[in-house]
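Long-time lurker, first post.

We've been arguing in lab meeting about whether flavin-adenine dinucleotide would sit comfortably in this protein at all. Half the group thinks yes, half thinks no, and nobody has a model to point at. So I'm putting the question to the forum: if I give you the sequence and the SMILES, can you give me back a predicted structure of the complex? Inputs are below. Any interpretation is welcome too.
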Amino acid sequence: MTRLRRDPRTERAAARTSGAERPRYDLALKAAPSRRPRRDPRAEAAAQRVPAAARLRLDRSQFGAATVVATHVPERQTDKASPKPIIVENPDFLVLVVPDMAGGRLGEHDRQLFGAARELAGKTGATLALVGASSADLGPAGADRVAVVARDPDAYDPDARAAEVVAAMRALDPKHVLFPESADGGDLARRVSVLTGEPLFTEAEQVSASALGRPARCRKVEQRSVPTRLISVAADSVASYSGAPREARNEQVDLASGPAKTAGAIVSATRIPADPATVPLALADFVVSAGNGVTDLDMFRQVVAALGATPGASRVLCDAGLMPRAAQVGASGTVLGASCYFALGIAGAPQHLQGVADCEHIVAVNTDLHAAMIARAGLGIIQDAQLVMPAILEELERERRETGT
Amino acid sequence: MRIAVLLSAGRHPVSGKPTLPRTEAQAIRMAAGLGAATGLHVGPDAFPAEAALGHGLDYAAHIACAAGSDPVGPLAARIVSDAPDIVLAGRRGQGGDETGLVPYAVAARLGVPIVPDAVAMRPATDGLVEIDQALPKGVLRRLVVRTPVVVTVHPAAPPPLPFAFGKARRGSIERIAAAPTDLAAGAPPPEERPYRKRPKMMRAAGGSAADRLKAVTGEATAGGAKVLDHQTPEDAAKEVLAFLRRVGVLAPASAAGPGRRPAASEDASRHATS
Ligand SMILES: Cc1cc2nc3c(=O)[nH]c(=O)nc-3n(C[C@H](O)[C@H](O)[C@H](O)COP(=O)(O)OP(=O)(O)OC[C@H]3O[C@@H](n4cnc5c(N)ncnc54)[C@H](O)[C@@H]3O)c2cc1C
Ligand SMILES: Nc1ncnc2c1ncn2[C@@H]1O[C@H](COP(=O)(O)O)[C@@H](O)[C@H]1O
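Top reply:
Settle the argument with this. Predicted structure of the protein with flavin-adenine dinucleotide, as tokens:
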């Protein structure tokens, strides 16, 4: 049963009669009910009850599931079911965003960049993403407009990219231009700054419509300024956009008015992938890790070498001296930036999982179906790691034999 | 090959004492492997030039000018008259504004290309130099570039040579007075206040402690798990390899995988007939 919560103060205020010198109240009058929902502890407990348990068990993570909501609080489920994109038809000004989009996908830093751009654009401005290839993620990330520039994704020609941005600036006259302060993004921002002769606000850590902030003098002082035209945004300091998706309308931009192309000084450019055997654990892209469930470490090292991965370990193995301390993954070891993590015989303690929080793909082999590592993994295999490791070596060997002949 | 190393007046991050920034000391080491290197500093104090001698240079030029004036003009003028093949600079200054814009401005003034974040350099055939550029995740980009070129040095380059007092005494410094430049050339200095450390951004600010733990261990983003029970180790191994290939961290079985097998047999038959 839902009863509305009474608010004695509003009731008294509503009952007060005007005109009198002293405060006088007409207690027969009824006050409007308070808008705060009243909790119903019994219904909450019933909702938290775990059904199949013999004894009474409550799942406390269901907190507030059955909190009784006053009937007049508007339900927002309708607009959650079909999120309508927000459309800015005639923006007062544009904020040009130049994300890195390494591999054609929006990275975390790129999303934060759009968060900063939305902050600067506010309600009346629009963000315009200047990208090499369109992506479905741009709208939800906060792009109102998308301009696609045809370019070879593998070629390295930073001068041409800078010329592109300058041409877009001439064609669109944006109020702000935002770059990520990453290896390639920071380089591009500085090139655009010297090409246009406009000052660049580098490594902005605070971005709002009224002010920018950046650290200087070895983080002893913070420099502040009103938002300049060219801004590069530091990683992990601005929240990414979290509102309703944006329209991401395609827009044609005429890039003919850019600065004249100079003869490229770069004769050739080749990417050299990192050597998994020597790359530091924090930089590795693919880590294979052993835990207390792995007893044959020679076999483990063979598997790591055969898969072309970087070796890691849980703290138990490092404490026991079976693996070097530098290989420890976790809160007191190394926090990985890898895209794929392969855990052999690791239980998945919270301290260990903290180290793999950023890993996108996780494979776990464990004998325990209920291990936390299996719950975290994209592919969990319930099997003895001591048997799976030789099977992997065998399978790779078989493939090599088959293709070798 | 002739090299100029740009030296800036750095400050130690903790003590605040004058130091040569680490990347510039690394640049000196990198230059030593390439050819004859000279140092170049623009500023009121000769300290960076003296420190650079101790880190391995034989000769450095100190162009004296007032504190706070723009170093780009005098630097570019000196580089034009020296005409080195490679100009090395640090990635960012240390203890100043730390914008990293000076090398870009110098390159633009000279009209030569700039290559950022070098970790290694080797001379190639005439007029070319091979530069290894550091990218995120330990990846390198190997560029072959026409000289003259401005190159900035990444902190992952080989560590600097230790400071040697005798070497610092033996080297020579040329002192030059710069033509006076107008002080307030650029934008007005920004407003400054003491730095306040802000909390690190969290992935998702959950309500309860359990939510925050999930956010920090990545469980909040995990989902769509596939759990395989009661499988033979061989099938499990196949599943793992297939998953790793789908994710793209493991190279496909081989260029001549099952799909190319007919080609291999065709090869064999040709050998048999010839
Ligand atoms: C302050 C603090 C900081 C810590 N920091 C870290 C850290 O940075 N990194 C870290 O890793 N730990 C850290 N720990 C330790 C952490 O809490 C766990 O103790 C540790 O991660 C457990 O390692 P494990 O999973 O390898 O071992 P166990 O917990 O012993 O788990 C072994 C797992 O292997 C499975 N298994 C057993 N035999 C087999 C088999 N034959 N085949 C397959 N699976 C098998 C078991 O089912 C079990 O799940 C920290 C602890 C504290 C208190
Ligand atoms: N006054 C200066 N004299 C010589 N080189 C400088 C000077 N200021 C900056 N540089 C170079 O430019 C790099 C980047 O500096 P900054 O742009 O101040 O972050 C430094 O690492 C130096 O190599």
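For your lab meeting: Chain B touches chain A through 89 residues (CB under 8 Å). Residues 71 and 247 of chain B are 49 Å apart (CA to CA). Whichever side wins, do check it experimentally.
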